Amino acid sequence: MKKTNILFVCLGNICRSPSAETIMNHLIESKGLQNKYYVDSAGIIGFHAGEPADSRMRAHAAKRGYTITSISRQFNPTTDFKKFDLIIGMDRKNVKDLQSLTIEEEFLHKIHVMTEFNKIFKEEGVPDPYYGGYEGFEYVLDLLEDACSGLLTELEEF
Predict the structure, then answer these.
(1) What is the number of structural domains in the chain?
(2) What phi, psi does 16 have (nearest 5°)?
(3) Which sequence positions are flagged as catalytic?
(4) In this structure, are residues 150 and 27 in contact, taking their beta carbons and an 8 Å threshold?
């Protein structure tokens, strides 16, 4: 059985996308679906490549029982568009950046915005908490829990 490959993308791959990766993997594991999905994350820019997720995001996630272990990497248009079935940007800017990096038009259908899958929150995108305070990190986790749950539900309905 071929796995569905999902890639979450934000600007630097240190706050939002590694959190989405962790939350999605948690949901997948809790439902025993590891054999159906592969999840990863990346950043539009490579400034933080090789670094762990932001320590504040890891701390907030840990309070909810998540352990963010992913290491930042830059999105690679040459390989990522071919490897991943879904490429999910955290906000509209990430989506536009991904669309501009698309090497073949046939890959455009793979690109989505994270909040497209929200069931509770009605946001246009997941805001970057990097320059904000406590509330920003918590709100991002709320949005991502909602969107990841909605995404998995949608995938399992097909």
Answers:
(1) 1
(2) -75, -55
(3) 10, 16, 128
(4) no
| pLDDT tens digits in sequence order for the chain, 158 residues long | 799 999 999 999 999 999 999 999 999 999 999 999 999 999 999 999 999 999 999 999 999 999 999 999 999 999 999 999 999 999 999 999 999 999 899 999 999 999 999 999 999 999 999 988 889 999 999 999 999 999 999 999 87
Question: Can you give the pTM of this predicted structure?
Answer: 0.97
DSSP notation for 70-118: -B--B--HHHHHHH-SEEEESSHHHHHHHHHH-SSGGGGGGEEEGGGG-
CATH number at residue 60: 3.40.50.2300
158 within domain boundaries: no
Give me the domain span that covers residue 107: 4-151
- Does 102 map to a domain? yes
Give yes or no for a contact between 59 and 134, defined as CB atoms under 8 angstroms apart. no
Q: Are 54 and 14 in contact (CB under 8 A)?
A: yes
